């Protein structure tokens, strides 16, 4: 029963992550850069602090007694991950909720596991672990290829009017490239949390300090999110402020009618909160898993995010008018993406 409850809770986190862009779609008269940084304040600044304050005793001591190099490296990986978050938003802008999240999350799951042993100099062909990692990555790339091909067929067969109604700024080639970049850079989240063993210390050291101050083992990662996501926020802030200056969109913060402005702020805040809630449900869900299954928590989160993002894609008519062959390719590709998440964690 505990395992089923855990899967349910983590899947709620995946649904939450997959849903974060839905309220943002309803924002009116704001440029992309305006609503993106608005949701980022909640997702990357407010959320981490609230979660850590609620779950980590002596939080200030944990942060102040963590080595500066570990804090700095965590922030650095967060800044790189921020590029992934930035392009993650763009991938959904150009591909839609379903295709954008599927491609980006597939690469994130694969590369987040592949790079650490590669950096550590491990021969992945010489061990069962290495072979499973390579197999999982190969399955992931196959799934992404099929999902991308399904997107190409959708572009060919979907009426232009229907496509623009479902995805305002649809651009397949640009979107796929951006989603791939997002997956590569988003993998830095894993490196920020766990470091690169034998190469770079980061959040793994902060977790040890948190444990030494009596933090529940299930919550020792929570203080890591503060410098990690702060780094991501800085990257996104700099780019969105550049776009705001370039597009002269500063006026959007003050020139809209009061009711529209408050609605936009609420919708953006809701999107940011939904995105960060995935980590709350991940932590609570993992607390119900037996020790040997803890490693699968992230896989369940990635898999459920991919699945629920495609549920939203169907509800938002992103695949309207496509043929049976396209939908079959999409489903096979999604199955491979979900399977790859679990093979990698074996």
| H and E order | HHHHHHHHHHHHHHH
Helix fraction by DSSP (H/I, runs of at least 4) = over 70%
Count of discrete structural domains: 1
Strand content: under 5%
pLDDT averaged residue by residue: 79
Please give the largest β-sheet.
none
The Cα radius of gyration reads: 20 Å
Total of helices = 15
List keywords for this structure.
mainly alpha, 346 residues
Describe the overall structure.
This protein has 346 residues and is mainly alpha-helical. Helices cover 77% and strands 0% of the residues. It has one domain (31-345). It contains 15 helices and no strands. The longest helix is centred in the middle third of the chain and has 30 residues, at 128-157. The radius of gyration is 20 Å and the shape is globular. The two termini are 22 Å apart. The model has no long low-confidence stretch (mean pLDDT 79).
Question: Briefly, what is this?
Answer:
With 346 residues, the chain is an all-alpha fold. It has one domain (31-345). The protein contains 15 helices and no strands.
């Amino acid at each position: 029963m505990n395992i089923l409850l855990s899967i349910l809770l983590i899947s709620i986190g995946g649904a939450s992550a997959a849903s974060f862009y839905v309220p943002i779609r309803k924002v009116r008269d704001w440029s992309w850069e305006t609503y993106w940084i608005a949701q980022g304040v909640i997702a990357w600044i407010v959320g981490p602090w609230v979660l850590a304050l609620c779950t980590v005793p002596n939080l200030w001591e944990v942060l102040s007694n963590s080595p500066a190099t570990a804090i700095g490296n965590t922030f650095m990986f967060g800044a790189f991950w921020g590029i992934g978050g930035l392009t993650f938003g763009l991938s959904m802008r150009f591909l839609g909720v379903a295709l954008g999240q599927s491609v980006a999350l597939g690469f994130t799951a694969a590369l987040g596991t592949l790079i650490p042993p590669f950096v550590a100099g491990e021969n992945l062909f010489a061990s069962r672990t290495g072979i499973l990692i390579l197999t999982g990555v190969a399955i992931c790339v196959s799934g992404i290829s099929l999902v991308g091909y399904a997107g190409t067929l959708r572009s060919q067969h979907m009426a232009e009017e229907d496509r623009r109604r479902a995805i305002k700024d649809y651009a397949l080639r640009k979107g796929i490239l951006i989603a791939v970049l997002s997956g590569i850079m988003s993998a830095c989240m894993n490196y920020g949390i766990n470091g690169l063993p034998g190469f770079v210390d980061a959040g793994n050291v902060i977790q040890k300090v948190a444990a030494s101050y009596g933090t529940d083992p299930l919550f020792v990662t929570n203080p890591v999110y503060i410098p990690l996501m702060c780094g991501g926020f800085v990257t996104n802030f700099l780019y969105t402020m550049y776009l705001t200056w370039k597009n002269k969109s500063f006026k959007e913060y003050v020139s809209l009618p009061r009711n529209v402005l408050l609605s936009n702020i609420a919708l953006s805040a809701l999107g940011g909160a939904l995105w960060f809630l995935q980590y709350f449900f991940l932590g609570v869900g993992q607390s119900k898993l037996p020790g040997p299954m803890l490693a699968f928590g992230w896989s369940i989160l990635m898999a459920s995010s991919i699945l629920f993002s495609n549920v939203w894609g169907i509800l938002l008519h992103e695949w309207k008018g496509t043929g049976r062959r396209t939908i079959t390719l999409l489903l096979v590709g999604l199955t491979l993406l979900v399977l790859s998440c679990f093979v990698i964690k074996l």
